[in-house]
Specification:
The protein is built from 1 helix and 9 strands. The chain is an alpha+beta fold.
Length: 112
């Protein structure tokens, strides 16, 4: 029984060790706006900093999902990919819903 409990405990630690949480600073853009985002992989969440508080973008028709294979979080609007948040390049890419190609994006840096 003790071995089973130890095994379950170690498995829970290993699973939690795979989760990422990063805070990105993006910008300033051409309008002088700097955006702060907090990205979670497990469960997949994207937060924006607004007026000193973190706000989850997933509401209504907007959803997010993490792809371990791509190491990216994808934002969906009405079940169609609208943005990609790449953990490797630290870039946010806007996706054209018509053909799935990139409409552009911006680079960020990890601050936490």
């Amino acid at each position: 029984m003790r071995k089973l409990l130890l095994l379950l405990f170690l498995c829970s630690l290993a699973t939690n060790a795979l989760a990422k949480v990063e805070i990105w600073k993006c910008g300033p853009d051409n309008n002088g706006v700097t955006v702060y985002m907090k990205l979670h992989t497990e469960p997949a969440k994207i937060y924006y900093r607004v007026a000193g508080q973190w706000r989850d973008i997933a509401r209504g028709e907007i959803a997010v999902a993490y792809s371990e294979e791509q190491d990216a979080i994808y934002q969906y609007k009405n079940s169609i990919i609208s943005s990609a948040y790449d953990f490797v390049t630290k870039e946010v890419m806007e996706i054209d819903p018509e053909n799935g190609s990139s409409k552009g994006g911006f680079s960020c840096k990890v601050i936490e």
